[in-house]
Amino acid sequence: MSQDVGGAPRRQVTITALLIAAGVLVLFVPASDEGRVLVPLSEGHGLSAVDAVGAALLALGGTWLEVLVVRRLPHLALPPRALFALGLLAGLGIGLLIASVFSGFFWWWAVGATALGVAVLVLVPLTARR
What we know:
Blueprint: H1 10-27, E1 39-42, E2 45-47, H2 49-72, H3 80-102, H4 108-128
Antiparallel strand pairs: 1-2
Helix pairs in contact: 1-2, 3-4
């Protein structure tokens, strides 16, 4: 990763976006083609080898992107309230995504993904700009 916080990490943001997209595509593989469940999480949810690959790609790309955003926070010129709101929105989104795996209400993942997506759509373009 680039040590130059002042420079625009466009190439790194592009790589992280590709990793995240690849992880999502792998997770879209139908359950019938994934093979057996290696780790059952809850009723209707389990981790197969294919899911583990998708989750690993998402974790790598998402963590790398988060590091890029945090390193660039001083240069984003966002007021403290906006940063707090975006952090709260992203945290709520991640929490709902995780909770949807363990709750009886399956569609919480869509609410969580939307909340997280809004925060990402605001922060990532600001991070990638020069």
